[in-house]
Amino acid sequence: MHLLRRPADLACQQVVELVTEYLEDTLSRADRTRFEFHLRHCPNCTAYLDQMRATIVATGTLRAEDVAPDMLAELTELFRGWRSEEELPDQP
Known about the structure:
By secondary structure, the chain is mainly alpha-helical. It has a single domain, classed as Orthogonal Bundle (Arc Repressor Mutant, subunit A). It is built from four helices and no strands. It is elongated.
């Protein structure tokens, strides 16, 4: 069965892209309504939002000494690589 999506409906990918703004309460009232409507009808996106909330709680209790030295070195290297990519000029 093929259902036409109403223009006001959000797709799952859009919900994933908006989850941070939703959690930070920065969505417009209209977008928040659309987001919550989607959640009421999509158990997968509801589970994703729950996972994001759990991640925020878990990482909020993480201390520097909880990270193994080799993992800290790996994360630092990844961050440095990401930062250097960010500083590259745009290619034509």
